[in-house]
Amino acid sequence: MLTKRIIACLDVRDGQVVKGVQFQELRHAGDPGELARRYNVEGIDEVVILDITATLEKRQALARTIDAVAQEIFLPLTVGGGIRSEDDADAAVDAGADKVSLNTAALQDPVAHHDARQRATAARR
Questions:
Q1: Which of 59, 72, 83, 102 is the most exposed place for a label (fewest CB within 10 A)?
Q2: CATH code of residue 67
């Protein structure tokens, strides 16, 4: 039987959580660390940070934002946005992420990301 899980996604821009519709008309919605702390207390199952401009700006997700959220929660943390290489994924994990989410980079080079996943899985064994 599948277990239902509640996962909060924090869309982040310039280190702050933003809300909008289809990433348009974005408005400030709070501090990522504070919101993550509240979600943790309220019983959420997992938190996802999506740095919505990292890929467009050709940079890694903000390590200080990842760290601020990781310090506030005791549950799985996934980070996406700006993860283009294994080094980017390692930087996100070093900053506090448990998992990384790939999108643009995986679509642009699916073979390389499949190989990276295989290496990461083998390293855990």
A1: 59
A2: 3.20.20.70
